Amino acid sequence: MKKVYFIIVFILVILILLTSGFFYWFKKESQPVSSTFEKVSFLVENGASATEVGELLFRKNLIRNRLVFKLYLHVLDKTKNINAGEFELSPSMSLPEIISAFGGGPKEIWVLIPEGLRKEEVVEKIIQSLEIADVKANDFRNEFLALSETSEGYLFPDTYLFPREVSAADAYEKLRSTFDDKFESNIGTLLKESKYSKKEIVIMASILERETKSFEERPIVAGILWKRIENGWPLQVDAGVQYAVANSKIKTQSLKSFNWWPILTLDDLNIDSPYNTYKYKGLPPAPISNPGLSSLKSAVSSEGSDYWFYIHSPDGTVHYAKTAAEHAINVQKYLGKK
C-alpha cells in the first residue's frame, strides 16, 4: 500500500514540476524580445494563417517563439483576433500585447474591389470595408462619386491596402492610377495592334465583365460582339439595359441598398437610353462597369468564331449558336423560353 502511495505521490510531483516548468517556459517565451521601442510596420495578408503570421513575427524579431504564439492563440481562443491589414508593432511588446494590437484593428485595411462593379458599388465596398460611420460615409460617398463621374470603367478592381482614415480623393486616385498602370503594362502593346481605340476596348471589356461567367468564354463572346457591331447588328446585351434601368431609377432610391443589376422585364427592353443595346446599334457611349485584366485582354484580343449568339443556362454554362434558329432552340432548351 505504501508503495502505491509513493508512486502516486511521485507521479503528482512530476506532473506539478512539468506543469510549473511549462508555465515558466510559456511566460518566459511570451516576454518582449528586447527593450527597444522602435516601431515596426507589420503587414498581415488577407487569409494568412496563424502559422504564417507567427513565422513572419519571428523572422521580424517581434516574438521569441513561434510555437508559443500558436499555443497562446488556440488555448485562449484568440485566433479570430488577427485581422488583415497593416499594424505598428515593437520588439518591446509582449506576446499578449501583440495579440491585443491585432485585435484592436489595423492601421491600414485590405479592401477587395471585385470585377464588374459600377462606381456606386465600388465606393460602397470601400465604405463597408473601412467601416466608415454613416455621417462620414455620406460625405465620402458623395465626394468619391463626384470625382469618378467620368471614370466609370477606369476604377481598377483589385485588393487595396488603405489607411483607415483614407480620404475619398486618395481612394479614387489609387484606383484610377492603378488602372492606368495595369492597362499600360498589360494592354498597351496589344492596343497598338488593335483597330479599336482605348475607349472602345474599355467599353467592350465592361460589357464582357457583366455578360460572361468564365475566363475561357470571354474572348469568344468578345469576338461575337465585335462581329455584331461590324455587321451593323445591335449588340442586344442585357447588361447595357440593366445599366440604363438603374440610371433611370436611382434618383428615387438609396445608394446604399440599391439593386444595380435588376432582373429585366419586357418593358425594360424599350427604355429610351443610349445604353439600351437592343434599341441602339454600336457600343454604349461609356463603360457600364469596371473591368479587370481578363476582360480587357479579351476585348483587345478577341477570338473569331462562326457563332453569332450565346446564352447562359442557370448553372452558368455558356451555349453558343451559329444561327437564330439554333439560338432559339438553346433558349427553349436551357431557359424554357419561346
State the major sheet: 2 strands, antiparallel
Are there runs of 5+ residues with pLDDT below 50, and where? none
Helix/strand order: HEHHEHEHHEHHHHHHEEH
Terminal Cα separation, in Å?
92 Å
Our estimate of the beta-strand percent is 5-15%
Tell me the number of helical segments per DSSP (H or I, 4 or more residues long).
Answer: 13
Instruction: Look at the structure and give the mean pLDDT.
Output: 87
Beta strand count: 6
Q: What level of helicity do the residues show?
A: 40-55%
**Spatial ordering of strands, largest sheet:** 1-2
Overall geometry comes to elongated
* Helix and strand composition category: mainly alpha
Radius of gyration: 28 Å
Number of domains in the coordinates?
2
Short description:
This protein has 13 helices and 6 strands. The chain is mainly α and 338 residues long. The chain is elongated and about 90 Å long.
Output the keywords.
single chain; 338 residues; mainly alpha; Dna Ligase, domain 1
Structural write-up:
The relative contact order is 0.09. The longest helix has 28 residues, at 2-29. The protein is 49% helix and 8% strand. It is mainly α and 338 residues long. It folds into 2 domains: 29-106, Endolytic murein transglycosylase (Dna Ligase, domain 1, 2-Layer Sandwich), CATH 3.30.1490.480; 119-305, no CATH class.
How are the SSEs placed, and which strands pair?
Elements (H helix, E strand, L loop, with lengths): L1 H28 L10 E5 L5 H10 L6 H10 L9 E5 L5 H9 L4 E5 L6 H12 L3 H14 L11 E5 L4 H19 L1 H5 L5 H14 L6 H13 L7 H12 L43 H8 L8 E4 L5 E4 L2 H12 L3
